[in-house]
TrEMBL record:
InterPro entries: Arc_rbn_hlx_hlx (IPR013321), RelB/DinJ (IPR007337)
Family as reported in the entry's similarity comment: Belongs to the RelB/DinJ antitoxin family.
Protein name: Type II toxin-antitoxin system RelB/DinJ family antitoxin
Taxonomy of the source species: Bacteria, Bacillati, Mycoplasmatota, Mollicutes, Acholeplasmatales
Gene3D superfamilies in UniProt: Met repressor-like (1.10.1220.10)
Keywords of this entry: Toxin-antitoxin system
GO terms under biological process: DNA-templated transcription; regulation of DNA-templated transcription
Pfam hit, one: RelB
Length: 109
């Protein structure tokens, strides 16, 4: 098929760089990756993956745990707590496990 149309897209430089590295490992360039993506949209008659807003309960759970972290001293929590909050908000760990992990991290901070 003759390629005679252009797409110009502005993206974050770091994202582009990170994706370029992955594509190099896969042995394809950005143009080929975008072509594959567009063909997948055609085949699926939509995006080839699910796109939706996070469930309100996940957002509420993350907020609840973040508030609990702040009760431990009112300090801004370290970046490593984002993983714990994420696991809890998705339901991968329960509240008690999350608080236990956070307390252990506070001891090591």
């Amino acid at each position: 098929m003759k390629k005679d149309a252009y797409i110009n897209v502005r993206v974050d430089e770091k994202t582009k760089s990170d994706v370029d590295e992955i594509l190099i490992d896969l042995g394809i360039n950005m143009s080929t990756a975008i072509d594959i993506y567009l063909n997948q949209i055609l085949l699926n008659q939509g995006l080839p993956f699910e796109v939706k807003k996070p469930k309100k309960e996940i957002t509420d759970k993350a907020k609840e745990l973040a508030e609990a972290i702040n009760l431990t001293g009112g300090k801004a929590y370290p970046k490593k707590f984002k993983k714990i909050i994420s696991l809890y908000s998705k339901g991968d760990i329960d509240y008690e496990v999350a608080l236990y992990a956070i307390k252990r991290e506070f001891i090591n901070v």
